[in-house]
Design the sequence.
């Protein structure tokens, strides 16, 4: 039954991708759930993947840049290929992005479902790919072989969130959380924008503030909590620009 459900979900995704308004092009991957085709940025429908700066614990209890791994695996899936994305409308979390049913031309399984099958993304709250997630969990693929916070909990910096994965240990809970929610995380290559969660950011409807290298606040901010590769990434995560950066803060 599980495999039948997975097959039906794959077939439905393919039909929707063919019948929705769609764009085909080579894709630029931004993270494990987001890619850009021409002038459109699509978040893959039905999944939640780690942000590029998210850290996890692997099966050996070592820290693991799972967000970088998710991005790189999605990049391998689309490398040099034509990708078609059915446009499902604006992304509710950021109006600059679209929700896309995306598939490599000539394939029968969408990119979102493939990422869940690899264990490098979770099914979103609607549970569209829940059977694929369960299979990845049972086989301890990708994220599931170690210990991690759900991407949605990481993005909200929920330090007390339930941890999941095959290598979570109650007797090491505090040490694991110190890695997953580090106050001084390692900067992913090419992602030099610093982000800091801040209560005062809520005044503008945001969760935090980001600081560019040109900002006066940048050199002194040593406990950045988050790293972003572009202003678009920071804004999509709910951060606004620091007021001392010059220009209009968003």
Sequence:
């Amino acid at each position: 039954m599980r495999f039948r459900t997975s097959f039906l979900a794959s077939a439905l995704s393919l039909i929707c991708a063919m019948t929705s308004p769609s764009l085909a092009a080579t894709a630029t991957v931004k993270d494990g759930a987001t890619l850009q085709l021409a002038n459109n940025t699509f978040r893959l429908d039905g999944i939640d993947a780690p942000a590029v700066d998210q850290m996890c614990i692997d099966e050996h209890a070592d820290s693991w840049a799972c967000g970088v791994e998710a991005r790189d695996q999605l990049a391998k899936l689309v490398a040099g290929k034509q990708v078609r994305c059915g446009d499902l409308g604006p992304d509710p979390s950021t109006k600059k992005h679209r929700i896309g049913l995306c598939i490599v031309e000539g394939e029968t399984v969408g990119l979102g479902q493939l990422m869940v099958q690899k264990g490098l993304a979770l099914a979103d709250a609607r549970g569209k790919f829940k059977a694929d997630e369960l299979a990845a969990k049972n086989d301890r693929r990708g994220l599931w072989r170690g210990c991690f916070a759900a991407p949605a909990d990481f993005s909200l910096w929920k330090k007390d969130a339930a941890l999941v994965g095959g290598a979570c240990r109650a007797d090491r809970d505090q040490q694991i959380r110190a890695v997953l929610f580090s106050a001084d995380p390692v900067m992913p290559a090419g992602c030099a924008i610093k982000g800091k969660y801040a209560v005062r950011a809520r005044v503008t409807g945001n969760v935090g503030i980001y600081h560019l290298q040109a900002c006066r606040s940048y050199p002194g901010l040593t406990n950045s909590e988050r790293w972003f590769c572009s202003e678009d990434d920071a804004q999509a995560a709910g951060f606004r620009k620091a007021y001392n950066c010059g220009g209009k803060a968003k």
Notes: Residues 5-9, 15-19 have pLDDT under 50 and may be disordered. The radius of gyration is 18 Å.
